[in-house]
Amino acid sequence: MASPIFSDHEEPCFTDPLEYVDEDYSDVLTHLAALRDEASKDGDVVFALPNNVKVWAHSPLFYIAAGERPPEEFGDPRRLDLGTDIMETAKNNLGVELTVLHIPEENRPSFEEAMGHTYTRKSLRGLWEAMGYDSVDPTGKGPDAGVPLDSTLPASMLPDFEIHLKAPGNRPSFCAVKVHKFLLARRIPYYETFFNSKFGDASGNTSTVYTEDFTPFSLWIAAGYVYRQELKELLNPCPGFRNYITLHLNNPHKAQSCNSCVTDRTLPDIEIADKFVDITRAARYLQCVTLENSALYLLSELGHRFECTGRGCSIFVPHILDVVAKSDISGQRILDNGISLLALLSNITPLWKRPLLNCSPSVLELLIAKVASNSQKEGEERRAIRLFETISDLRRHTLASKNAKDWDTKLLVPLMEHTVEFIAKAFDSLEVTTGLIRVFHPYNLSKPVGGELLSMVMSNKTLREETCRQIFIGIMELAQKRGTVPEVEQAKRDCIAWFKRKWVTLTFSPAIRTPVKPTKAKSSPQEYAIFKDREPDDQEDSTEPPRTPTSTHWRGPPLASPESGTKKKLSIDTSDDGNFFSAWSEEDLAKLTSVIPASIADLVAKSPQSPAVDDRYKPVRTPRGNSSPRRGGVSRGRGGHSRGSASVSRIILNRIDARPNREQH
After folding, report:
1. What are the φ and ψ backbone dihedral angles of 392, each rounded to 5 degrees?
2. Higher confidence at residue 288 or residue 249?
3. Is the peptide bond before 619 cis (omega within 30 degrees of 0)?
């Protein structure tokens, strides 16, 4: 039953300024209030006031609250007021018989003051310190780590429950901690269930946990959590940890304070991040949600809440992400926040240091994917170019280090390839052209980076069937503005050479049709100034029907043949899908045929075996003017002219000018 000396308006006085009640301490205060109200259940000392009202308590907490005075100093087991030596006894709910201590009237004020502080956080902390654990090295490096020092508690008040740590199998225990059983049942949900179960060892005074879920350090922390709510208090002995967090949070120049910790060599041990993961795993086993959340919160604090770009965070953040990713704890939010910090374009230079290479492949894959998603959005191709510049600059700085190969294979080259692939697919966009014009500006120091970008775009891995149209159009546009730049000239030559080798093969390929967007990307005033003097290559009749992206036939305006200065009307009479070049616009085809030995009719033909047919002039003209059957020409066999497949496209040219142009393609 509740003690009568605590009425509704007479709660215990919290004289310690640290006893500020907020949500962080509500858990332990609730447990202490329950212990006080239900002290008759497992209390080991009972007092009788002069009016014979009995007050139950737990002697270890009362001992600390009374200034390390034993309960016997406040009362006597004999009823001296009745002139008798008979001792009164009482039983708690566990059936333990206890001697009642009678409080004389003169001791009542001091007794009530001690009882007012018995079930407080101050007494709970004092009990932990009196046990000797407060001086133990929690890092596990000292010779007495995990072993309590000399206790100041009387023998009858020492911890009465022991938790052993064992490795799986029939191996002996190699570590143990002792706690008070009455506190363990209240503070640790796992043991509350354990003591109330019907297991054979539930009534004993020992328990065993295993190294699959615990380490000596996390077991020590779990024991300390029984007595001290705030995890940060238990980590005070860890060198530099509290200062590293406090200085950062209280300093407006957070990156500078983070840098000073590295310069002054006051950075805490990096292994403390691993210990927070161990605490989280142990807390989850013990079902201590508050302890688990505290460990995850402090792990985030160790990374300065993933808002700092100082040198300390360049060391800690990658390690935090790595240990969380390798563990089975619920740290997805930490992973998301840490990856987001590292993936910002502005944070690559300050945070991408050597510790990042120590991360597991899974973390680096997440980082590459996040960087790519940040910089590879439609309409933001210039951001991708800036990313390539930043990565390329970082790569030049790492070439001289002994980890250059790791930088390339693990992070930089894969990210550059991702970025180049994205840029290549939008190489004909205004964003890419404008970005490259800036890169190749005469006064821009990033021109070598631009050359490297163009070199990767023109590589066989990037320049292929899916991207060749965009790359060709983009490089031709760039050459108009920066054609005197050697890197641009070389890229243009490489692109043209590729089409000279591949155009015949591409006529066998099906069309790759890109859906036409109804809206255009917005251009800035600077972009407008760059392109305002450009005239369209060909003026189209606005009344001509457009070529829809889903069409399988050529529906555009009359095609201009590059063979002569005259125009020939061209149409495709086919029941099959068009070939690769049929999806190109007239303007793009005209640009291509101006630099390779082929006509538009040759390009849009289904295959070299069925070339463009000029009905007036025989034999059929073939690509490269070759009449060899093996190379797509005319075979004069027994059946007459053979043109390969019977279902291929047939292109009819209606001649306007009577004079053909026999110019070599």
Report:
1. -65, -40
2. 288
3. yes
